[in-house]
Amino acid sequence: MLHIISLGLFDKKDISVKGLEICKKCDFLYLEKYTNFFDSNAKELEEFIGKKIIEIKRENLENKSLELIKKAKNSDIGIFIPGDCFSATTHISLLLEARKMGVELNVVHGSSVLTAIGETGLSLYNFGKITTIPFDNKNVKSPIEVLKNNRKLGMHTLFLLDVKENRLMSINGGLKYLLENKIDENTLIVGCCGLGSEKKEIRAGKIKDLIDYEFKIYPQCFIIPGKLHFTEEEALEMFGLENS
Fold it and tell me: How do strand 157-161 and strand 220-224 relate by DSSP bridges?
């Protein structure tokens, strides 16, 4: 059987009880960290769980996933994925391939930034399409188009920030991209850092006021709110909206 096990939002302690129970019975455990930030490495996870874990690279899931799925025909294979396993479209291919090959599949869901942003006080029902700002973004316009379309509908826009090997894009880097693409410096943004951790930080303000602010902890993302309900405005006041 192939077990896709979500690790949760921030570190090893975010794995669910169900996830722990499942991984205890697995014959082989694998960890991928290329699609998302995760504060615990394979060794720390090994010590926490008490079982050997093999860290795998992007190519193992994208180009060699069939090898893992075939192995799951006769063994219990567990693949750890930070956040919730299907927040990134990369892992949907595992689900599809397993079903095509007749391999039994078990999915353990976990906490994700897609719901954790509710801590800002912005209603999840009022979010439009999500977009990601990549590192190499000189000629990339899709995040701006997503923002424009969401604004027409009065919806909030969540900007995820690129993760590439050991590089993590910061909120500051994302805001510079917006300014380079003619987004008004007086635009309200809500920066979110380390959601799920004890050191999390949420800060609301104009781009011009936060462009040089030091957001210290990762992972980071930010939101450009759309039309605000009065309860959302009240919530954002806790994070600095009254100063924007």
Answer: antiparallel
Neighbours of 218 (CB within 10 A): 18
- Name the residue type at position 203: R
125 and 226, same domain (yes or no): yes
What's the first-to-final CA gap in the chain, in angstroms? Answer: 53
Q: Are residues 65 and 51 in the same domain?
A: yes
Indicate if 96 and 124 belong to the same structural domain: no
> Angle at the Cα of 160 (from 128 to 139), degrees rounded to 5?
95
Say which residues have a Cβ less than 8 Å from residue 35's Cβ, sequence separation at least 6: 81, 82, 88, 90, 91, 163
Where do runs of H (alpha helix) occur along the chain? 17-24, 42-49, 58-62, 65-71, 92-100, 113-116, 142-152, 171-180, 207-210, 230-237
Do residue 7 and residue 59 come from a single domain? yes
Residue 42: predicted pLDDT: 86
Q: Which of 86, 111, 136 is the last residue of a domain?
A: 111
What residues contact residue 97 under an 8 Å CB cut-off, 6+ apart?
A: 65, 66, 69
Digit-coded pLDDT (tens) for 42-78: 899 999 999 999 988 777 676 677 888 889 999 999 9
**Model confidence, pTM:** 0.89
**Mind listing the pLDDT tens digit for each residue in 114-162?**
999 999 999 999 999 999 999 999 899 999 999 999 999 999 999 999 9
Looking at 90, 111, 132, which one is the last position of a domain?
Answer: 111
Structural domain boundaries, residue 96: 2-111
Please report the pLDDT score of residue 244 as a whole number: 44
Structure tokens that stand for 109 in this block: 């869901």
